[in-house]
Amino acid sequence: MSQVYLAYDYPLLSAFWTMLWFFLWIMWFVLLFRVVTDIFRDDTMNGWAKAGWLVFCIVLPFLGVFVYVIARGRSMGRREIAQARKQQEAFNDYIRETAGGGSGSRVDELARLSDLRTRGEITDEEFARAKAMILADGAPAGRATSVTAMQEGPDTSVTSTPGR
Predict the structure, then answer these.
(1) 49 Cβ neighbours under 8 A, 6+ residues apart
(2) What are the tens digits of pLDDT across the range 71-115?
(3) DSSP code, position 164
(4) Which residue among 50, 81, 90, 119 sits deepest, i.e. has the most Cβ atoms within 10 Å of its Cβ?
(5) What's the rounded Cα separation, in Å, for the pair 121 and 153?
(6) CA separation for the pair 35, 41 (Å, rounded)
(7) Are the C-beta atoms of residues 62 and 29 closer than 8 Å to each other?
């Protein structure tokens, strides 16, 4: 007949030791994956050096990982920081490009339009129409959609007569 182990048969200290060893085992795997990632990320090492470190970490895993961390741990941290900065800069550039809208913001367009009106290059009616197009974020086909198009000349394709 087989013995049945109940919860009170497993001492509390043994439970703590089991959790500690399990935690250390998981942390070692995390460290192993970070070392392998760093081996491939390092641009200063040639292919043979990368292959040597990788074989060392696979054949003698505990010793290989610990020797790598001791020998190259400081530069490993620097490469990690450089990679994080590069990703942050790429993200910031993407945000700036996306938020900018390409040709400039609405505020910039309205400021340029106001300058054109104060210099007398466009009339008040053209200013109101262009302002409405900018604020509506689009215009019907055939109309000027930017201040630079308004500088080329007034839009004569559509005429408006009051009362009709």
Answers:
(1) none
(2) 988 888 888 899 999 999 999 988 888 876 555 677 888 888 888
(3) -
(4) 50
(5) 9
(6) 10
(7) no
- What predicted TM-score, i.e. pTM, was given to this entire model? 0.48
Q: What's the N-to-C CA distance of the chain in angstroms?
A: 103
Dist CA 133 CA 149 (whole Å): 12
Q: What long-range pairs does 128-137 form, CB within 8 A, spacing at least 24? A: 129/155, 134/106, 134/109, 134/110, 135/106, 137/106
Find the length of the chain: 164
Which two structure tokens, joined as six digits, stand for 58?
């696979």
Cβ pair 66, 59 in contact under 8 A: no
| pLDDT > 90? residue 22 | yes
Residues 147, 152, 157, 158, CA torsion sign? positive
How far is 82 from 144, CA to CA, in rounded Å? 46
Token pair listed for 2: 């087989």
Identify the residue whose tokens are 């106001």: 114
Neighbours of 14 (CB within 10 A): 10
Instruction: Please give the residue that has the higher pLDDT: either 6 or 83.
Output: 83
Amino acid at 90: A
Q: How far is it, in rounded angstroms, from Cα 119 to Cα 126?
A: 13
> Which residue bears the tokens 């700036």?
96
